[in-house]
User: Which sequence fits this backbone?
C-alpha cells in the first residue's frame, strides 16, 4: 500500500493525471470526512476538499516519502479548513437547509438524527479540539502524527483530545442524546 | 483510586484504544462510585454515537473536479527563496542591531591616542603649542600624517578644556557647591583643573553618563579591570 502510494506520487510529480485521479479516489473520502467534520457544511467541505487536493498536488515534491502520506494530506486539509473558517467569520454564513432536510426513510432516520446531534456537538468545540478529536477518533492518527499535522506539541494534542471528549460527553448527555441513544446506537 | 484520578486514568485507557472495563483499577472504582460510573458510561456512549454518526459522501466526481481545478490554475510563479526564512528575520535584525551597538561602544577602546614619546608637560601644551616632533634616530613620519596627528592632539586638548570649563561652571551654579553667584560664574568661568585636563589628554575621554554606564557593564561582562581596559 505505501509503495503504491509512493508510485502514484512519483507519477503525480510528472503530472500524470491518471495517478492524481487515483490519489483522489483513494483518499478523497478521508479528506472530505475531515473537512465535513471541521466545517459542518457539505458544500464548504466539498470546496475545501478540492482546494486541499489541488494544493497538495502542487506541493507533492515537499512530501517526505519516508513518512506516511495520509497525515501529510490531512494536515493540508486541516490547514485549509482553518483558513476557510477564518474567512467564513468575515462573510455571511450560507443556509444549511439542504443539509438538514429531514430524511423520511425509516431505517436511516435515527442515524440521521444522531449525525446531526454529533455535528452540533462538534460545532460547539473549539476548532483545535475538534480537529484533534476527529483526527484521533475518526482517522485513527497517533498523537505524534496529529502533533506534526497540527504543528504543535504532543502534550497539547493530548490535552485537546481529552477536553474535546469531556465537552462532547457533557454536551450530548445534557441534550439527552447519550442516554436515549446509547442502546439504540448499538442496534443500528 | 480516588475520584479525581478516575478521569485522567479513563483518558489514558481510551488513548490506548482500550475499553474502560478492561482496566482493573477503573472497573474496581466504578463498581462502588456511581458518579464515576456515570462519567465512564457517558464517555463510552459519546464515542459510540460518534462512531455511528457517519459522514456523508462527497457528491459528484471529486477527482474530475480536482483535475479541472489544477488545469484551470496557471502555474504559480516560483518565488525566490530567501537565504533566511521570514521567521528568522526579526532575530537577525536584533542580532545585527546588537552587533552595531557593541561595535560602537567597543571601538573607542581600541583607539588609543598616539602620543609622541617625549611629549612635554600638559600645562605647556594647553597654553602654548603642540609638541615638537621627536629628534629621532629613526626616520620622521611623512609630513601629512604628522599634521593629522598634531591636529587631532589640538582638538583633543580643546575638547578637554571646554568640557572642563563647562563642568566648572556647572559646579559653581549649584547652590552650596560652587562659586559666588550664578551671574558671575557664567560671566567668568574658571579654567579646568590642570590634573583633569592632564587625565583627559593622557587617554581618558570625556563621555556621557550613558556611555560610561555601557562601558562599565562591558568591562564587568568581560571581567576586565577598567583601568587596564582604558
Assistant:
Amino acid at each position: 500500500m505505501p509503495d503504491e502510494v509512493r508510485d502514484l506520487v512519483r507519477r503525480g510529480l510528472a503530472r500524470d493525471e491518471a495517478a492524481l485521479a487515483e490519489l483522489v479516489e483513494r483518499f478523497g473520502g478521508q479528506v472530505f470526512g475531515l473537512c465535513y467534520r471541521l466545517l459542518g457544511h457539505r458544500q464548504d467541505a466539498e470546496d475545501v476538499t478540492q482546494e486541499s487536493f489541488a494544493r497538495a498536488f502542487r506541493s507533492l515534491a515537499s512530501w517526505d516519502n519516508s513518512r506516511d502520506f495520509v497525515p501529510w494530506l490531512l494536515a493540508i486539509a486541516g490547514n485549509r479548513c482553518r483558513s476557510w473558517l477564518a474567512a467564513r467569520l468575515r462573510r455571511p454564513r450560507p443556509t444549511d437547509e439542504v443539509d438538514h432536510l429531514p430524511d423520511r426513510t425509516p431505517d436511516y432516520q435515527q442515524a440521521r438524527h444522531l449525525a446531526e446531534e454529533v455535528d452540533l456537538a462538534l460545532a460547539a468545540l473549539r476548532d483545535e479540539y475538534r480537529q484533534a478529536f476527529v483526527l484521533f477518533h475518526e482517522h485513527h492518527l497517533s498523537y505524534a502524527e496529529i502533533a506534526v499535522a497540527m504543528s504543535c506539541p504532543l502534550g497539547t494534542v493530548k490535552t485537546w483530545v481529552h477536553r474535546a471528549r469531556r465537552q462532547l460527553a457533557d454536551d450530548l448527555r445534557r441534550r439527552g442524546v447519550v442516554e436515549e441513544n446509547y442502546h439504540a446506537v448499538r442496534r443500528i | 483510586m480516588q475520584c479525581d484520578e478516575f478521569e485522567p486514568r479513563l483518558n489514558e485507557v481510551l488513548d490506548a484504544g482500550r475499553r474502560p472495563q478492561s482496566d482493573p483499577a477503573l472497573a474496581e472504582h466504578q463498581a462502588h462510585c456511581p458518579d464515576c460510573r456515570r462519567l465512564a458510561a457517558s464517555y463510552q456512549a459519546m464515542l459510540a454515537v460518534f462512531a455511528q454518526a457517519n459522514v456523508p459522501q462527497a457528491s459528484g466526481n471529486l477527482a474530475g473536479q480536482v483535475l479541472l481545478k489544477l488545469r484551470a490554475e496557471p502555474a504559480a510563479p516560483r518565488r525566490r527563496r530567501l537565504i533566511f526564512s521570514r521567521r528568522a528575520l526579526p532575530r537577525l535584525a536584533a542580532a545585527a542591531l546588537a552587533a552595531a551597538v557593541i561595535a560602537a561602544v567597543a571601538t573607542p577602546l581600541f583607539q588609543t591616542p598616539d602620543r609622541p614619546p617625549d611629549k612635554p608637560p600638559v600645562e605647556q601644551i594647553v597654553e602654548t603649542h603642540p609638541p615638537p616632533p621627536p629628534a629621532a634616530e629613526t626616520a620622521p613620519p611623512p609630513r601629512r600624517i604628522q599634521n593629522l596627528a598634531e591636529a587631532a592632539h589640538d582638538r583633543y586638548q580643546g575638547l578637554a578644556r571646554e568640557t572642563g570649563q563647562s563642568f566648572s561652571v556647572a559646579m559653581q551654579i549649584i547652590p552650596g557647591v560652587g562659586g559666588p553667584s550664578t551671574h558671575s560664574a557664567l560671566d567668568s568661568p574658571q579654567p579646568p583643573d590642570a590634573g583633569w585636563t592632564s587625565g583627559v589628554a593622557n587617554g581618558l575621554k570625556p563621555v556621557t553618563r550613558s556611555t560610561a554606564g555601557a562601558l562599565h557593564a562591558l568591562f564587568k561582562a568581560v571581567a576586565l579591570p577598567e583601568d587596564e581596559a582604558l
Observations:
- Chain B touches chain A at residues 7, 11, 14-15, 39, 41-60, 62-67, 69-70, 73, 76 (CB under 8 Å).
